């Protein structure tokens, strides 16, 4: 069911708790309110069109004054969107259909987001066609290309990606590969032997060569893939600081 009536008794369960898994739009309305009667069908149509991805909860402010007061409702219709247990968007007053649709669209994953979550190569490439420069599509594709030895392909994939630790690390890797440097470390990265790769990169950093900055960027990019509180990440950051400073 995409449209539900909610009262003070079940607001916590049906709105706040439910929003932790599915976005919930709350329509604060009253039977005497003309703009509410105009907006209500638009909200219901928008919720229904999204096939359960957004729930519309209707709260009669006359029957539930405490909820209305708790959320500071001073004029109706008032619409609030909940996600992860909190209000993330809202508006007051009747709105045109286009505005209502845009409000709901912002609460659900876009086509690009869905493709990136799918994560397979075809989906990621489709995501880049729709949204050039999306790092969360380009970076994994570039990493796969590098693992296949396709440095030029990886560079092209990263061309429009904004700077980030991971993207900059892969760009540095491309430069290192061109110089024929650190083959063992790069092979360890591709094999998932990250601890060994870090050892080899830190050893290489101790040499004051022209490629020192690229080595640092590569190491930092690989560190960015680990959870910050992971033991290997903490120890490697400590060792990196000791080498650099």
3D structure, described in words:
The chain has 245 residues and is an alpha/beta fold. The chain folds into 2 domains: 3-105, 3-Layer(aba) Sandwich (Glutaredoxin); 111-244, no CATH class. 56% of the residues lie in helices and 11% in strands. It has 13 helices and 5 strands. It has a 5-stranded mixed sheet with strand order 1-3-2-4-5, sandwiched between helices. Helix 2 links the parallel strand 2 (24-29) and strand 3 (55-60). Helix 7 runs parallel beside helix 9, helix 9 (165-178) crosses helix 12 and helix 11 (194-205) packs parallel to helix 13 (231-244). The longest helix is centred in the N-terminal third of the chain and has 16 residues, at 34-49. The model has no long low-confidence stretch (mean pLDDT 94).
Descriptive key words:
245 residues; alpha/beta; Glutaredoxin; five-stranded mixed sheet; 5 strands
Order of helices and strands: EHEHEHEEHHHHHHHHHH
β-strand number: 5
Shape, per Cα inertia axes: elongated
> What structural class do you assign from the helix and strand content?
alpha/beta
The pLDDT mean sits at 94
Number of helices: 13
Number of spatially distinct domains:
2
Low-confidence stretches: none
Proportion in helices = 55-70%
Give a short account of the largest sheet.
5 strands, mixed
Gyration radius, rounded: 26 Å
| Beta-strand residue percentage | 5-15%
């Amino acid at each position: 069911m995409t449209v539900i009536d909610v009262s003070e008794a079940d607001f916590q369960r049906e709105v706040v708790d439910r929003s932790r898994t599915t976005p919930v739009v709350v329509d604060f309305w009253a039977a005497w309110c003309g703009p509410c009667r105009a907006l209500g069908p638009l909200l219901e149509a928008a919720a229904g069109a999204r096939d359960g991805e957004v729930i519309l909860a209707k709260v009669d402010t006359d029957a539930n004054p405490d909820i209305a007061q708790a959320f500071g409702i001073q004029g109706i219709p008032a619409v609030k969107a909940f996600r992860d247990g909190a209000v993330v968007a809202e508006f007051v007053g009747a709105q045109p259909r286009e505005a209502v649709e845009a409000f709901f669209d912002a609460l659900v994953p876009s086509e690009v987001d869905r493709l990136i979550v799918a994560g397979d190569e075809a989906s990621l490439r489709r995501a880049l066609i729709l949204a050039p420069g999306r790092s969360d599509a380009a970076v994994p594709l570039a990493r796969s290309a590098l693992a296949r030895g396709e440095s030029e392909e990886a560079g092209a994939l990263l061309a429009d990606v904004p700077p980030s630790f991971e993207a900059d690390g892969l760009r540095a890797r491309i430069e290192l590969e061109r110089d024929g440097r650190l083959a063992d470390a790069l092979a360890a990265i591709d094999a998932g032997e990250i601890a060994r790769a870090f050892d080899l990169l830190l050893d290489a950093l101790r040499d004051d060569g022209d490629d020192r900055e690229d080595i640092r960027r590569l190491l930092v990019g690989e560190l960015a893939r680990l959870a910050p509180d992971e033991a290997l990440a903490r120890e490697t950051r400590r060792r990196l600081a000791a080498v650099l400073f």
